[in-house]
Structures are given as C-alpha cells and as structure tokens.
Amino acid sequence: MAVTRKRIEGNLAAIRSRIAAAAARSGRDAADVKIVAVTKSVDTETIRNLIDAGITALAENRVQQFVTRAEEINRYLQRRRNPLASPVEWHLIGHLQRNKVKSAVEISAMIHSVDSLRLAEEINERCEKMNRRLPVLLQVNCSQEEQKYGCAVGAAIHLGELMAQMKHIELSGLMTMGPMDGNPDGTRHAFVRLRELFEEMRHENIGGRDFRHLSMGMSGDYEIAVEQGATMVRIGSALFE
Question: Is the pTM of this model over 0.90?
C-alpha cells in the first residue's frame, strides 16, 4: 500500500526538526543539509506522493531499479500539470559495477559510490562519450568492515587526487556509511573520520571548489551525521514509516 502524501509530510516535518536541532548543536545552518530520499523499498505511487510533498532528490541502490524508477517517474512528470519548485534529480548510492556504468551515467545527477580508480576511469570515459561532466563522490569505508564497499581510509587521498584530474567527472566530496551494528559511538567515530579526511583533502585543494559535500547518515543515524558536518543525508524508512 502506498504511503500517503500527508503521512510523508508529517514524517518530513519531524526529520527536518531533528536536522535543525542537530545543526544547531554544532553551530551549523540546517539549510546546508540536503535530504536525499532513498526510494528502494517503496512503490511508484509513494514516490509520486514524495515528490508532491516537495522532495525531489531521489536515490536508488541498484542500477536496474534505478533505470525503471526513473522512467516511471519521468512519465508521471510529463503528465503532471503543476511545475515543481525544483527538478527531480536521481542519485545512485549503491555499489556500481563497471558493466552498468552506461545506464547509471545516463540518468544520474550524482553517483555517491565511486570506490576504485577503475570505476572512476570507466565513468569518466562514458561521460566523455556523452559530452557531460558528472558529479561523483568518493566512497570511503570508514568503519573498516570487510563486508562493505568503499576504499580504505589510507588510500582515499591518493585516489581523490587521481579522480580530481579526470576531465569528465567532478569530484564533489566524500561518502560513507556508519557501522552495521548501529552503535552510536562507532557511528560517530566513522563520521568524524570522514569529516577529518574531507578537511584534509580540502586543505590540499583536492577537487577545488567542487569538493564540498559529505554524504553520510541514514534513517537511524542522520542526526549524528549532521552534527559531524553532513551536507547530504540519505533517508529511507524514516520518511515512509
């Protein structure tokens, strides 16, 4: 059953209130935090209600569903009579295989999950063929869990330097996920480490002006992420519960 617009708006108000409180605790402006809605577990009608509630940054984990959802929503937007305040943009946040780069690049406004030089090169080559420059984030495994994707913390600066030299991708920042056990102390440690890495790379001017985003925090830990400097939080279940 679809989640109603009214339910989404109520959840969204609560999320924004918590983001504002977390931002205030760290001396930040809540307006600097973007909510990216993770739509992998909901139906198309719910996504339409989400858009009508004002959230237009949408994220998917798997490329095939990413493509299907984008096509469905594009058809809805073509039928929609009232213009949106801002255009719908699609973010790919899950692991990306190199053989699926073409489909991802055709749709993405941003790819959050670039974690290897070979993948970055593949994206850069595909973007060159399409004559576009695509914002990407370098995914870092700050929790050092073997089952997670993301480059090692110690390799991130060098990889970031190489990515920043590519002409058809825009290194826009870093992404990480908190530890799978959800322990708040471990989560905070991972987010602090990503922020420190981000600040070090900015000090070295890696990525230049484009390098400005920290994508971290999901439904269970976005408040910690905002306290530690997140500019994008990837929210799924908290929007739709």
Answer: yes
Tokens of 71: 């096509």
With vertex at residue 194, the alpha carbon angle to CA 159 and CA 204, rounded to the nearest 5 degrees, is: 55
| CA-wise closest residue to 50 among 34, 38, 65 | 38
DSSP E strands in 56-209: the ranges are 57-60, 89-92, 110-114, 134-139, 169-175
Q: Helix 153-164 to helix 184-203 angle, to the nearest 10 degrees?
A: 40
Give just the sign of the alpha carbon dihedral 97, 101, 102, 108: positive
- Residue 228's φ and ψ, nearest 5 degrees, are -100, 10
Residue 231 sits in a domain whose CATH number is 3.20.20.10
- State CA 151 to chain mean position distance: 16
pLDDT in tens, 192-218: 999 999 999 999 999 999 999 999 999
Split into its structural domains, the chain has a count of 1
Q: Pairing relation of β-strands 213-215 and 110-114?
A: unpaired
CA neighbor of 57 nearest in space, from 90, 102, 18: 90
In which domain, by residue range, is 162 found? 5-240
